[in-house]
């Protein structure tokens, strides 16, 4: 079967500048209309004493015909010799801005229409700004209604010069400006003899000249991990990593990396429900894979190929969002971000600018994003996540924001942000500045208790070790207590591992509990005690977070068996049978507990 290439084009512009007429003319001139459609509309106009317009070919909604405006984002289909097009006629009236945003977000290129007689309107600039915010890089400006200015080249050049200067300011480099008359057909599908001074392509030629996005299977592999299935019946020890491939392909024998954990393995098999295993799978297939080495990964991670370009990993990014929540999007409130299978807490850190949907006004000073606003913002997640820019891979560049269990906004990621302090660091600095210090010094507490304070975290990457590390923590507490040291074991490992089995926003909950552990550790170590806890499968980011939260006091992280870390170095990696004695020896070597106190 010969599958034709398909491309999405959005057309935008000020009210009555001729967007629908451009599309109608393209349809008529390329014979893309159903048989008899053009003739029936002409006959309708004749019977109703109404002048025929090509825009009528698109105005099929009753409200459109009664009001004379394009109400909804109309999806129309156009065919050329090269490819098929979906033409998205986005409304120019400001009350339908959100529809235009919805339409443009699915476009690979944009046509922006300007009336040659009326010139550049403020809405023309605002629509250009929105196209820029949506990441549409291929933009062609159609200077329409040239017949109304007698095809004057100076009018065209003035509009081109002025609008080019504006577009450059908003980071759009227009592909070309084309002088047209959609009503008369000049430079739409055929060259215009009336604008003989113009030597560039027609609109139709330019459409075929646009670069289309790559097929999803040609892009680097992206497979969000949906779940990990384990089997125990009849000696089946497989662990199947399940998910849907968003882009690229995967073969048996490919080396893969899971992000953001950076854990690596090799594909051992590719499986699907009720089918025989296969050697290769492509984009849009829901599959399960087994790995040659058993590594512990979590749902929400992103599987990529080791030899292909990886996704970005960061906790900060710049994104353009369209907000539909009843309550405004505000700074520093923790929302829930969902992208692929990733579910994580997110904060709005900075508002770069906002386009007000009601007035189409661009505001750089508003402190919150109101309903139906389009905004360029900087967000920060509670821990680093893997993502791609929308211009590179669409499936991992889009997200939604959930507020109070309702989807309240959608966004596209435009840029990775590496500068600026993490809000956790800001919080710790503020906390330490406001901390009410006791009259009793740490040295006095050390002398009274016979030891220094310490935060001890016991972890493991071995499946089934949750209760093992709990037992070690409690035994360590018991040994230190019998030596008359002030110590306390906070048993939360079971709670954390239990949260991981819930279907709701479990990873945000885990992140919050990690934060609570760190804050409690800061209090208990400040009181001079030795605090002990166990956290199963602690990852690099969580370990760093606990270190930060416990500042200015110190931490010891002990790993039992298989390490859950990718790059973080535990203070000790030991077996369970010698764990308690090894940790006690470490405390003596670091002079946390001193020989002469024993």
UniProtKB/TrEMBL annotation:
EC numbers: 2.7.7.4
Keywords: ATP-binding, GTP-binding, Kinase, Nucleotide-binding, Nucleotidyltransferase, Transferase
One annotated GO biological process: sulfur compound metabolic process
Source species, domain of life: Bacteria
Residues spanning the membrane: none
Alphabetical list of PANTHER family matching this protein: TRANSLATION FACTOR
Protein name: sulfate adenylyltransferase
High-level lineage: Bacteria, Bacillati, Bacillota, Clostridia, Eubacteriales
